[in-house]
Amino acid sequence: MGEIALEGMEFFAFHGYYDEEQKIGNKYGVDLYIQTDLHAAAASDNLEATVNYEKLYKLVLHEMSLPARLLEHLGHRIIEGILNEFPFVQQVKVSVSKFNPPLGGICHKAKVTLEKRQGQ
Questions:
Q1: How big is the CA angle at 91 (ends 86 and 95), to the nearest 5 degrees?
Q2: Rg over CA atoms, the chain
Q3: Tens digit of pLDDT for each residue in 17-30?
Q4: Contact 77, 29 (CB under 8 A)
């Protein structure tokens, strides 16, 4: 068992509960943690025996390009996409952050974290 992480991914996207947020856009961050068996890739040095980081990034990029009202929904879509694309992955954890959310005061970021095991 092992973990693959993509941390600190940043995107400019058009998400938000309010229509105005979806028009002006904002900066978002995504941290992704994948639990899977890494022993075959470690022994073979073969990319086909593991989760390709580039494919993970492109999957997140695709989901970030599709507007959503809630960060929770974005996280859900990312997790489902990964579990569908990589059925051998055992668990996915994702954090989605919105930088400088429009709360009427100072807040560096709002963040949600979701986690799901394969088959749940």
A1: 100
A2: 16
A3: 988 989 999 999 99
A4: no
pLDDT at position 102 is 87
Query: Is the Cβ–Cβ distance between 9 and 62 less than 8 Å?
Result: no
> What was the pLDDT predicted at 15?
95
Catalytic annotation, residues: 98
Strands 109-117 and 91-99: what pairing? antiparallel
Answer whether 6's CB lies under 8 Å from 57's CB: yes
Weakly modelled stretches of the chain, pLDDT under 50: none
Instruction: Give the whole-angstrom CA distance, residue 49 versus residue 61.
Output: 23
CATH number for 2-117 (one of 3.30.1130.10, 3.40.50.720, 3.40.50.300, 3.60.10.10): it is 3.30.1130.10
